[in-house]
Design brief:
Pfam families: EamA. The protein has 13 helices and no strands.
Length: 307
């Protein structure tokens, strides 16, 4: 069996770092805009970026009959349903508890891929997933609560629904990257996301004006996070197992905390840093190991059997 080169693991690592930084950018944006308006503007900015890259988006594009159902379902899962559930969840539960629920995604993808695609998950990978989950729990519970959670049961349930949508997205993208480029699939998400969130944004309150302090993180979310993060993730999914890619998702809350400490001045306890270390260790264990090459058979003629 051929194992994916190191560059695909590096691109997954970079994608997780980009997504982790999006928590800081989104926190800056939602302080001035409602979540649905923020998501719509983010999708609109990414759509403009893809319009500039339209030559590369449609290069070598060849539609396969019947794929419109899969393409539509992928975009419906993410960004549509995922962002809906995520934005609603954060109104009822704290970001730390939502992050704890999001750590279930790799396990959900692993079970789904094993059930639907017969992907082999070795005990070492299960152990890596469990270790990373323990790290997320440790990191989340190791700090003091800084946000109100008026209805954590409802909020955590909505976050779980967001993870269900993310699971469906991962499995669908894994299939579609065999036929379409990662750039095209990411651009399609932006198109459908804009159409989906436009009426929701129009029904939401808008500020009288939007300053550069809000536009700057919005542009970062729309170009770097949406185009770069999803593009790298979708590109990697074309070359690695869905279970391996999902294992890297555990890095998102860890990167989110690191960027919050760096850019927002948040303080971490020693226990939280230990939890981040467990997350990285778990992701390392959940990766596919490169098998040793089989010994080359001798070119000498086989010995003649006596008799």
């Amino acid at each position: 069996m051929n194992h994916p080169p190191l560059r695909f693991h590096i691109t997954l690592f970079i994608a997780m770092a980009i997504w982790g930084s999006s928590f800081v950018a989104m926190k800056m944006v939602v302080s001035d805009l409602s979540p649905l308006v923020a998501v719509f503007l983010r999708m609109s900015i990414s759509l403009v970026a893809f319009a500039v890259l339209i030559r590369w988006v449609i290069r070598d594009f060849r539609y396969h009959p019947g794929d419109w159902k899969l393409l539509l379902a992928t975009a419906a899962m993410e960004p549509c349903l995922y962002f809906i559930f995520e934005s609603l969840a954060l109104q009822y539960t704290s970001a730390s508890q939502a992050g704890m629920v999001s750590a279930l995604l790799p396990l959900m993808v692993a079970v789904s891929a094993w059930w639907l695609f017969d992907e082999n998950v070795v005990p070492r990978q299960w152990g890596g997933f469990a270790l990373a989950l323990a790290g997320v729990l440790w990191m989340t519970l190791g700090g003091s609560q800084s946000e109100q959670a008026p209805n954590p049961l409802l909020g955590n349930f909505l976050e779980l629904l967001a993870m269900v949508a993310a699971t469906g997205y991962t499995l669908l993208i894994k299939h579609l990257t065999q036929r379409y480029s990662a750039l095209f699939l990411t651009a399609l998400q932006s198109v459908i996301g804009c159409l989906f969130f436009l009426p929701l944004a129009l029904l939401s309150p808008w500020p009288d004006s939007i300053g550069w302090s809000t536009w700057a993180p919005l542009i970062y979310l729309g170009v770097v996070v949406t185009l770069g993060g999803y593009g790298l993730y979708n590109y990697s999914l074309g070359h690695v197992k869905a279970t391996v890619a999902a294992g890297y998702v555990n890095l998102i809350p860890a990167f989110g905390v690191v960027f919050s400490v760096w850019l927002l001045g948040d303080q971490l306890t020693l226990g939280q840093w230990a939890g981040i270390g467990l997350i990285f260790a778990g992701v390392y264990l959940s990766r596919e190991q490169r098998r040793r090459p089989e010994p080359i058979a001798s070119m000498d003629p086989p010995p003649v059997s006596p008799g």
